[in-house]
Amino acid sequence: MGLSDVVYRVYGRNLQRQLDTARMPGHVAVILDGNRRWARAFGAPTASGHQAGAEKAQEFLAWCDELDIRVVTLWLLSTDNLDRPEEELIPLLSIIEGLISDLAAARRWRVHPVGALDLLPDRTATVLKEAADATRDLTGMHVNVAVGYGGRREIADAVRALLQEHAEKGTPINELAGTVTAEDIARHLYTKGQPDPDLVIRASGEQRQSGFLLWQSANSEYYFCEALWPDFRHVDFLRALRSYTERERRFGR
Question: Would you give the distance in Å from CA 224 to the centre of its chain?
Answer without folding.
Answer: 15
